[in-house]
Specification:
The complex is a heterodimer of chains A (296) and B (268). With 296 residues, chain A is α/β, with parallel strands linked by helices. Chain A has two domains: 154 residues, Rossmann fold, CATH 3.40.50.970; 115 residues, Rossmann fold. Chain A is built from ten helices and twelve strands. In chain A, the strands form two sheets. Chain A has a seven-stranded mixed β-sheet with strand order 2-1-3-4-6-5-10, with helices on both faces. In chain A, strands 7-9-8-11-12 form a five-stranded mixed β-sheet, with helices on both faces. The longest helix of chain A has 14 residues. Chain A is globular. Chain B has eleven helices and seven strands. The termini of chain B are close together. Chain B has a five-stranded parallel β-sheet, sandwiched between helices. Chain B has a two-stranded antiparallel ribbon with strand order 4-5. Chain B has 268 residues and is α/β, with parallel strands linked by helices. Chain B has one domain: Rossmann fold, CATH 3.40.50.970. In chain B, helix 10 links the parallel strand 6 and strand 7. The chains are: A alpha/beta (296), B alpha/beta (268). Chains A and B meet through helix 3 and helix 4 of A and helix 6 and helix 7 of B.
């Protein structure tokens, strides 16, 4: 996924001289092709995320569309107030790229488990929040972010995630899309854990529908309203705390759509998410997902 | 003489403002009045009728709580009217008591400390990348040098030879709950900056000639950023406010306002 991101960023940077990449001394063996081609639009800000985000804000004030790149919680939590006040309040074109979303860096420990990012990012005004499920979505979001004025967040996996879409996808900002349509149950997910949904549905619930939500914010209201009329039972899955996450956002939307009479009823929604806990031991991403109860 | 009058007018305007709106932070607003006076009359290339002009110099006030004197400076320079200024802190006004970029002439909203220097580094870097000649100036308080984010930037700026960046420390030596020496000693501050590879100027931050000389000297420094450590007096210009922690918080009474205005006028 990170390869899809950097490759597409390079493609975009070739035609858009405002694209700028800032890393927090991370990205070894990933960002080098960008550095080689655009040395003047690359900066290693060092292990100093607050300064990194402030610099990104300054660069964006002068017209650059700046991507800040680091691992897990470092480009978000470590510099949260700079994101809120410098970037979001001033509505600047800074895109935060976090590699290793969820338990992707499972063996590295809790410091590297990024499982609260949706919540802290989606509460910020002006912020677009995205989590591609596969390299095709990562590519499409990168293109969108390169052409979007304003703040954005993209949660990437690391490397080697399988393609869930058969080919490149075209996304508009906030758009959800079906992996497959069906009836009865609708499985909705965001991020790379969507792969587990496809495996499960193929084996156990072949008539169900599956939808990918590459964007947690804005959430695709039209898609949700339409799906309410087609599916009675919904199951959401995310590699994130159950509080303030993707399922929470869907529930909020369902409530609001019902309240403003856009939808006639609220479907039953089973949320699969991390039950308000840290995991303090090592494990592969697959192992830790099971330990956290992220099982269909 | 003209600059002295301007500084006096800034103090009078800010005094009336904080009295009228029962606002705080007059002490830190007064310690930087001469610095603002020189910047906005002698140094900064800014155009009040075109505040977003691409080639303007950028000035960022990191100690955003002390903005009453900057708002007053901008009003006196014609960035907006006195009438607009007097909406300060009122319902619906962009003139918040921690500085707001929605006010003409304000580059960056601050108020949370330790934010402006990193952004200023980004601005200065952008100017370098784009071969633009405008300068970036950023003013911090001494208390906010407790913030780690500043020291990330203080490491960064010399690494990238940001000689188009000037940091001004309003070194009034009193922070929110005590003196700098009591809370988090900065001394020897100049040595710290030199160790971090900055060009250092130490001046009397109330002496208009010294201030102007320092800002002009900064322009000759190449390949590294400069810091002007301006030794100042919190509450400068009003004897019962000077060096008093209380005036970080207090708003003057009617009697105190009149006495303060008298002293400021007399000083001039």
């Amino acid at each position: 996924m990170r390869t899809a991101f950097i490759n597409q960023l390079i493609v975009e940077a070739r035609q858009n001289k405002d694209i700028f990449l800032v890393v927090g001394d991370l990205g070894f063996s990933v960002v080098e092709p960008f550095i080689d081609e655009f040395p003047d639009r690359f900066l290693n800000a060092g292990v100093a995320e607050q300064n990194m985000t402030g610099i990104a804000a300054g660069l964006a004030m002068e017209g650059y569309n700046v991507f800040t790149y680091s691992i897990g919680n470092f480009p978000t939590m470590r510099t949260y107030e700079q994101i809120r006040y410098d970037v979001c309040y001033h509505n600047l074109s800074v895109k935060i790229v976090s590699v290793g979303g969820g338990y992707a860096y499972g063996p590295l420990g809790t410091s590297h488990h990024a499982t609260e990012d949706f919540g802290i990012m989606r509460v910020l005004p002006n912020m677009i929040v995205s989590a591609p499920s596969d390299p095709h979505e990562a590519k499409a979001i990168t293109t969108l972010f390169c052409n979007h004025q304003g703040p954005g967040y993209i949660r990437l996996g690391k490397a080697g995630e399988p393609n869930l879409h058969q080919q490149d996808v075209s996304l508009s900002l906030g758009q959800a899309l079906y992996i497959k349509e069906g009836q009865g149950n609708l499985y909705i997910g965001t991020g790379s854990i969507l792969k587990d949904v496809i495996t499960h549905v193929n084996a156990n619930d072949p008539s169900a529908g599956i939808a990918s939500f590459p964007f947690i914010k804005p959430l695709d209201q039209d898609f949700i309203a339409d799906a309410v009329r087609k599916y009675t039972n919904w199951i959401s899955i995310e590699e994130h705390q159950s509080n303030c996450g993707f399922g929470s956002a869907v529930l909020e939307s369902l409530n609001d759509l019902y309240n403003n009479q856009t939808i006639p009823n609220i479907p039953k929604l089973k949320r699969i998410a991390i039950p308000d806990k840290f995991i303090g031991y090592a494990g592969t991403q697959e192992f830790l997902r099971k330990e956290a109860g992220l099982i269909l | 003489m003209e600059l002295k009058q301007f500084a006096s007018d800034v103090r009078k305007t800010a005094l009336k403002l904080v009295f009228e709106k029962k606002a705080s932070h007059i002490g830190g607003a007064f310690s930087m009045v001469e610095l603002l006076t020189v910047l906005y009359n002698k140094i900064l290339l800014v155009n009040p009728s075109n505040p977003c002009n691409e080639n303007r110099d950028r000035f960022l006030l990191s100690k955003g709580h002390a903005c009453s004197s900057l708002y007053a400076t901008l009003a006196l320079r014609g960035f907006f009217t006195m009438e607009e200024l007097y909406t300060y802190t009122e319902n619906g006004s962009y003139f918040t008591s921690h500085i707001n970029h929605k006010v003409p002439g304000i580059e960056l909203s601050t108020g949370s400390l330790g934010h402006a220097l990193p952004v200023a580094c980004g601005l200065a870097l952008a100017a370098k990348k784009k071969n633009q000649t405008w300068q970036t100036y950023v003013m911090v308080s001494d208390g906010e040098l407790n913030e780690g984010s500043n020291w990330e930037s203080i490491l960064f700026a010399p690494q990238h030879k940001l000689d188009n960046l000037t940091l001004i420390v309003d070194y009034n030596k009193i922070q929110s709950m005590g003196t700098v020496a009591e809370v988090m000693e900065l001394h020897p501050l100049a040595d710290k900056f030199r160790a971090f590879r900055w060009e250092v100027f130490e001046i009397n931050g109330h002496n208009l000639d010294e201030i102007e000389t320092a800002f002009n000297a900064v322009k000759l420094i190449k390949d590294k950023p400069s810091v002007i450590i301006a030794n100042t007096i919190k509450g400068k210009g009003v004897d019962f406010m000077e060096e008093k922690l209380l005036w970080h918080y207090k708003s003057p009474s009617k009697e105190q306002l009149e006495e303060a205005l008298r002293q400021v006028a007399e000083e001039n």
